[in-house]
Amino acid sequence: MVHVARLIVLLSGLFVSGSFYATAQNREIDSLKVLLRDTKIHDTTRLFLLSSIMERVKVSDSVGVHYNTIIGEIVFRNLRNRRLTRKEKETYLYYQAFWYTDKATELFSARNGRLVVYYLDQAIAIFRQLKMDDLAWNTMINKGHILRKMNAWDEAISAYFTALKHLEASGYMPGVAAAYGAIAQVYDDQSNYPMALTYYKKAIAGYRAIEPREAQAFYEEAIMLHNLGYVYYQLYDNAKAKASYLESLEIGRKYGFSDHMAFDADKIGTMYLEEKNYAEALAWFEKGLEYAEKDRSRNNLLLSMGKLYFEKKDFARSLGYYRQALVLAQEWNDPGVLVTTYYDLYKTYKALNRPAEALRMHELYLKAKDDLKKDEAENQLLQQQLKYDYEKKELLSKAAHDRKLAAIRTESEKENVRRNAAIVVISVVFLIGGAFLVYYFRQKTRMNASRNNELKQKLLLTQMNPHFIFNSIDTIQSLIYNKQEKEAISYLTKFSRLTRQILENSRENYILLSEEIAMLDNYLTIQKLLYNNHFTHTIEIGEDIDPESLLVPPMLTQPFIENAVRHGLKNKQEGGLVHIQYYTRNNQLHFEVSDNGSGLLNEVQRHKSLSTQITRERLQSIASRTDIVIQTANIVDDNNVVRGVKTWFEIPYVYNT
């Protein structure tokens, strides 16, 4: 299939310790673009051409994002078509799965972690539906990578071992080797070097067992050998560390991985430097500089050369290398490297007895070190300033009041008594009025709290009613009785996660839109089990919406989704569909849910009225909104035949700052 090679590159390259991209010929991409201009080609052919372009570009850059956006538009538009053949639907689902993996690649960062996990879970589900198990478990490894980046160690390890079990059973060695390497890196991150050593060795053996071996497998083997060298170094076994680095470097030399060779040479030279073997250290650093390009590896080598000459007391040469390193560090604007470089320059200028330059470097070192805390310091300063201004105002008011009292005392005694009496009367009036206001607002607060608690109870009842709970448990028990333990465990996990999500989020007024989407997806997965999988569901998010930047009321839309399942698809034994959309219009966030059922009935109308009432009460309580209109209507075709129901309304939101 078109995307298999690209997924493996994403799996073991982008998310692990480096990446290997074959140089794409611009001529090939231009030829594919020409073919895309033909408006008569079928959408499946168009997707094939777009995917071929995606194989030749980097997924996370602007070009990759542009073409993946087009793929998403074609896929989601076609999957809404009820007349697709089975083969057509499977083709579009296949490209949809890769759309999800490419979106995960585009957004990959700890900050977007939950959304990346959501996209990867969607891809895994589709791959399993299409019985493409190798791709499903490779994607599971990618899920482990983002969990690792989020420091969710236990979940990452669980994902890796789940994937490893299935990949070993299938005998798919590229995936097996990648899983071993990923597990090793988690142990490496946790400084559990004995375990890391075990799994790095397994990963290396796995990459060597791949037949036929391509450049990517050799590159990954080189990475694992480099990491193995680091573990031996941490275990104070320099001989084995050097041997691992040398093996890694030999692979790099054979296949032209120059950037990788530079890192190996730097590590070998560093060990010789620690052993005070300056001649060998210098030779390796110089080799590294021959391999290195204008990147981090070159920066590291320049710093290593500077350190070598500093230890040899050749401060002039040391200074030259540190200055070159500074130029690169400033180009990369890497705070960590800048801190190291400024400090090394400070020591060198100090050793050269050049106090002015040494002082300047020390100032830059301190500034770079404090940059990460700048925002926090500014906030603390602002708070101190506000506190100072407030206290100053209070002191001035008190001084003015004291002057006024002194002036009053100079007046006649009679006037003073009258004024004091008036003050007493006014004070009594204010005390009585204040007591009344305190009582009034306390009562109002209690009433609001009671109303909010009542709404929360209603919300929980609409989301986790006894009927839903008992049916879920009963269905899971049936799976167990039927010896479907894996399915039972899977759905029990989803059910417990949903329960936890609902209970936790019911205490919040707002949650991230990405969390809301993940919760709804989990809810619908359980509903599909309860209804014998006679329907499918899709969740579509507008291209201009970033689910990680918007906060929305939790499960506000769930009652309407439940209506679509319970009532909209009530008489549909198979082929049911629930489609959910989030989109913007006039700078407002909107929600829409539709089904392909038999249309509105009186029973449904009564249930929707209850959902509408609870939703309006929640909106008024949370967002003080009374102008939101909840609309429901039948979906009719050109022949005025009812094809389902849709409900839509505006959702209040705030930005996640």
Describe this structure in words.
The protein has helices at residues 4-17, 26-36, 43-54, 62-79, 86-107, 113-129, 133-149, 153-170, 173-189, 193-208, 215-234, 238-255, 258-274, 278-291, 296-311, 315-332, 335-351, 355-370, 374-409, 413-463, 466-481, 485-505, 513-530, 558-568, 602-623; strands spanning 511-512, 535-541, 550-552, 576-585, 588-595, 631-636, 642-651, 654-655. The chain is of the alpha+beta class and 657 residues long. Among the domains are: 1-203 and 222-231, Serine Threonine Protein Phosphatase 5, Tetratricopeptide repeat; 464-655, Heat Shock Protein 90, CATH 3.30.565.10. The strands form 2 sheets. Strands 2-4-5-7-6 form a 5-stranded mixed β-sheet, covered by helices on one side. Helix 1 (4-17) runs parallel beside helix 9 (173-189), helix 12 runs antiparallel to helix 13 (258-274) and helix 15 (296-311) runs antiparallel to helix 16 (315-332).
